[in-house]
Every structure is written in C-alpha cells, then in structure tokens.
Amino acid sequence: MKRFLVAAAITLAGLPALASNDDIVKVKSSGDVATTMDRLEAAVTGAGANVFARVDHAAGAASVDMDLAPTQLLIFGNPKIGTQAMQDDPVAGLFLPMKVLVYQDGAGQTWLAYEDPKEMFDDLSISDDAEYLKMMSGALGKLTGKAAGQ
Question: Is residue 18 part of a domain?
Fold first, then answer.
C-alpha cells in the first residue's frame, strides 16, 4: 500500500507539467526559421502592432561556442489591447508583451509556438470571458497562420 501511495504521489506531482503542454499552441510552418520569423514580423507590423525585440537564441548559443538549432523569439504587442489586461490585473505585465517562438525541431520541421492567452493569465484576476483575451487569441492565430504560410 505504501508503494502505491508513493507511486500515486509521484504521478500526481507530474500532472501539472503534462497539463501545461495544453497551454502551448504550436503551428507547423512551411518555411525555415528565418523565413517564418520574417513573415511573422511582417504580419505583426502589418497589423499595426509594435515589435519590441527579435531574439536569436541560436546566435546567443553560438556566441558561447554552443550549438542550438535555429530558434528565434519575437516580442511584440499592441498597448490598446495589453493595457486592458494590466488594468484588470497589473501582474499581467509579467506576461506582456506577447511572445512567439519560432524553432526547428529535431526532425528539421519549423514550428511557431505561443502560450494561449486565456491560460497565460489563468492565475490572475482576469475573467476568462474578457473581450481582450479573445482579441489576443484571434490575433495570435492569424499572425502565426500567416507566418506559417497557411
């Protein structure tokens, strides 16, 4: 019985990590990382949002003589939308501006990944039916779809 309880405790402890995978939306891209990131950045600026930074993780790894598959992060946002979340809960600023990761997996496939806004703000004082959450989710879906070549 004691072994069963220990096994159950270990299994239950691992569930949040498994559940968190549902919070990440992944979109398969038809291009390589650089092309996909260029398309994403163009889509973001074309939609009137601000690009704050483009981080090349692979270049960072190379600067310390380490290898990393092509991986880039775009940090962007629209203050008209993000400010609403921060008005409801200032801690939302920990998650904003929005971020999309473009990376190459072990099989050579390029992916875009982002955290579902509804899940991202789940522990905050933000209503699940806030209109800006729908706007953020919709925008992320459209932007990543364009960047993926869909």
Answer: no
Asked whether residue 6 is assigned to any structural domain, the reply reads no
Could you tell me the CA-to-CA distances from 35 to 1, 70, 126, 137 in Å, in that order?
Answer: 56, 11, 35, 23
The whole-model pTM stands at 0.83
Pair 41, 74: CB distance under 8 Å: yes
Q: Is residue 27 part of a domain?
A: yes
Distance of alpha carbon 70 from alpha carbon 67, whole angstroms = 9
Record the tokens describing residue 114, joined without a space.
């982002």
Report residue 57 CA to chain centroid gap: 15
* 75-96 pLDDT, tens digit each: 999 999 999 999 999 999 999 9
